[in-house]
Amino acid sequence: MSANDSQKNPERVAAGLRGTLHNDNVSDEAKDRAADRLHELGGDFENKTSRASAGTGDQHKNQVLGGYKATLHNDKVGEEAKAHAREVLEENNAGEEPLPQSRN
After folding, report:
1. Which pTM value belongs to this model?
2. How far apart are CA 33 and CA 91, in angstroms?
């Protein structure tokens, strides 16, 4: 443990270690060290991200569809891309009108 570890947010450290475990560009040795370090941090951080992101499937889909709607209103986008956006929106029963802005 380095002297800097006491200043780091343990949840963010755990998130970085989990990212290391899932990164194909990281060596097996580094993944083993990350897994050991994550284990040292304890189980409290193991599933925190998955719980926090539960139910975001609909949110992601809405963001993607919003991107297609934005495509239709962007003058710099070609007609072929706009046609594809219309197809995707029709397949998902989403109209071309803008969605109301959500307030967080």
Report:
1. 0.42
2. 45
The sign one gets for the Cα dihedral 71, 61, 56, 34 is: negative
Residue 38, C-beta contacts closer than 8 angstroms, at least 6 positions apart: 14, 17, 18, 21, 45, 46
What single letter denotes the amino acid at residue 94? A
pLDDT tens, position by position, 79-103: 999 999 999 999 988 877 665 555 4
User: How far apart are alpha carbons 59 and 56 in whole angstroms?
Assistant: 5
Question: How crowded is residue 15: how many other Cβ atoms within 10 Å of its Cβ?
Answer: 15
- In the chain, DSSP finds a helix count (H) and a strand count (E) of 5, 0
CA dist., res. 104 & res. 102, Å (int): 7
